[in-house]
Amino acid sequence: MHVAYREDREKKNRLKYGENCRRLYQNTGKKRGGLWWTYVLTLVFKIGVDATFVYLLYHIYEGYDFPSLIKCEQKPCPNKVDCFIARPTEKRIFTIFMVVTSLACILLSVFEILYLVGKRCRECVTTFHQSRRVVTNTMSSGSNLMESNNLKLTAKNSPQTPAPSYYVVIS
């Protein structure tokens, strides 16, 4: 849904500013910003719902085992009566299947959250190191600094060696 919203915004932006305008998103299908947070919070909510289901089912039935016979003393029974549960084995099997499925969903959701957070951390660290490497490379090369500033010095005033970089002078 969020991807369709982004694509619609891109389309409206192109109609308004022309085909050669700057794009709003680099890739509309990538999980960035609000979409990433929405997806992670949805996974957390899903984990909460599944865990609540497993917990309540365990406490309502005092485990995941259905008894085949219950002694009933409640109204409208006049005295203690034997109540038989229909098909207790089938109910037990389906209940265990639902619990195992919920536990598998919880486990997969936890792994997906760990993957998403790890991927985002790796991207941040990689971006930080790349930006730092670019700054360090341009600062440590005095000739690049001289060329980038387009300094025009006369032959008698120009130094034989390039000026030291700021990083070298500080350390």
Write the layout of secondary structure elements.
Layout: H1 2-17, H2 34-60, E1 69-72, E2 81-84, H3 88-140, H4 142-149, H5 166-170
Antiparallel strand pairs: 1-2
Characterization of the model:
Helices cover 64% and strands 5% of the residues. The protein has 171 residues and is mainly alpha-helical. It has a domain at 33-129: Gap junction channel protein cysteine-rich domain (de novo design (two linked rop proteins), Up-down Bundle), CATH 1.20.1440.80. It has a two-stranded antiparallel sheet with strand order 1-2. The protein starts with a helix and ends with a helix. The model has no long low-confidence stretch (mean pLDDT 77). The chain crosses the membrane at residues 36-58, 93-117. Belongs to the connexin family. Its main location: other. It comes from Seriola lalandi dorsalis. InterPro entries: Connexin, Connexin_CCC, Connexin_CS, Connexin_N, Connexin_N_sf.
Summarize the structure.
With 171 residues, the protein is mainly α. Helix content is 64%, strand content 5%. The protein has a two-stranded antiparallel sheet.
